[in-house]
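Morning!

This is the sequence you dropped in the shared folder:
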Amino acid sequence: MATQSPKKPAKSVAAPSAQAEPPHSAASKDIWLAGLGAMAQAQAQARAQGSKAFENLVADGLAFQRKSQAAAQEKLHEAAAHFNQLTQGLGAGLVQPMGAKVDRLEHLFEDRVARALKSLGLPTAQEVADLQERVTALEAALGKKAPVKSKKSPA
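The structure's back. Tokens below.
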């Protein structure tokens, strides 16, 4: 049985359909076949040397599994700690008073509206106020020389 397993994969690896498979699929298949080969060797050694060799392989596999699980758990704890730090940092930034948030939003809105109006060529509120003062001063200066006409038209 151990001699038949290597023959079948050799045929499938040489087949044109195996060449069209993505590289990760071929690598996965190779890993699977290597595992089967190790199992076949372990069975052959077990027959030749008894169950001692097989038990050693099982113990090595168990030790490797525990080691890899411990490493995975450690990485998971590190990622969780990093995530908690990020969420705490974000939470601290979001706990501003609501009034401060509204003021900031209002200021941002006013700035953008002012830029839009300026790009259209419309005067600012300060420019309109300055012009009103100048018109009032001119009217006052003209009022001394000539009577001011009423804005209402005669009916």
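Headline: Residues 97-145 form one domain.

More detail when I'm at my desk.
O.
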